[in-house]
């Protein structure tokens, strides 16, 4: 099947999922930090966060990946040369996940910020009036409701990130797309292999939609939805 290349392509699926999952964790970290900065009282923090989200969301992911990967490697080796460390070869997996996380952290910043703003201010004030600490308010009031409000935007960002993980093949990572490229070049049947990985990505996104849809329903249990029709 697939001229014997199917096991190799499925073997690259693990790298694809590892890149997407690790990138998501990094993106969540950047997103939470960015949202906190945008909602802070510091104009400097708000300015940095606004610049970050504006620049990152305004440039295509492919351009940013090439710019940050190759530009970062040049800058790092220039510094290493000055320090006498010798040439540094950046690991494609580490570089790919960091770049992906940095890029999609800008999108999650707006998702998390909007989710926090959607929480009624009166609930937080009531919790403080009952003597809850800031940590208790965050754990019992803010985070549970933030997750519920953020899940639709989070789902969209995850689906885009999962598909964008194919871009890491251009920086040398041996993922599913990279192996499909090699198989297509060897057999001269690109449509067969690209159609195969398209179906695999479709299966992954379908599973993700079902799983995150379940979480959204679970976190929305007991919440009455208003029909505006």
What does this structure look like?
It is a single chain. With 229 residues, the chain is an all-alpha fold. The chain has a domain at 17-173: MetI-like fold (Orthogonal Bundle). Helices cover 78% and strands 0% of the residues. The chain is built from 8 helices and no strands. The chain has helices at residues 6-38, 43-57, 61-83, 92-117, 121-129, 134-164, 176-187, 190-219. The longest helix is centred in the N-terminal third of the chain and has 33 residues, at 6-38. The chain is flat and about 70 Å long. The model has no long low-confidence stretch (mean pLDDT 86).
CATH topology of the domain at 17-173: MetI-like fold
What is the count of β-strands?
A: 0
CATH superfamily of the domain at 17-173: MetI-like
How large is the share of residues in beta strands? Answer: under 5%
Please tell me the CATH architecture of the domain at 17-173 by its name.
Orthogonal Bundle
**What would you call the shape?**
flat
Helix/strand layout:
Blueprint: H1 6-38, H2 43-57, H3 61-83, H4 92-117, H5 121-129, H6 134-164, H7 176-187, H8 190-219
Keyword list:
78% helix, 0% strand, single chain, flat, mainly alpha, MetI-like fold, 229 residues
Quickly describe the structure.
The protein is mainly α and 229 residues long.
């Amino acid at each position: 099947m697939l001229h014997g290349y199917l096991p190799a392509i499925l073997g690259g699926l693990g790298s694809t999922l590892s890149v997407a999952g690790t990138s998501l964790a990094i993106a969540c970290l950047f997103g939470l930090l960015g949202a906190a900065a945008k909602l802070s009282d510091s104009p400097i923090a708000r300015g940095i966060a606004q610049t970050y989200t504006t620049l990152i969301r305004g440039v295509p992911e492919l351009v940013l990946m090439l710019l940050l990967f190759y530009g970062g490697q040049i800058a790092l080796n220039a510094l290493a040369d000055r320090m006498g460390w010798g040439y540094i070869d950046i690991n494609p997996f580490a570089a790919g996940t960091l770049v992906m996380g940095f890029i999609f952290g800008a999108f999650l910043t707006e998702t998390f910020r909007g989710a926090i703003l959607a929480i009624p201010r009166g609930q937080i004030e009531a919790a403080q009036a009952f003597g809850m600490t800031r940590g208790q308010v965050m754990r019992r009031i803010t985070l549970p409701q933030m997750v519920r409000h953020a899940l639709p935007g989070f789902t969209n960002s995850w689906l885009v990130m999962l598909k964008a993980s194919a871009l890491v093949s251009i920086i040398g990572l041996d993922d599913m797309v990279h192996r499909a490229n090699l198989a297509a070049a060897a057999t001269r049947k690109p449509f067969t292999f690209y159609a195969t990985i398209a179906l695999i990505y479709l299966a992954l996104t379908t599973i993700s939609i079902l799983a995150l849809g379940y979480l959204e329903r679970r976190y929305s249990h007991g919440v009455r939805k208003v029909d505006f029709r």
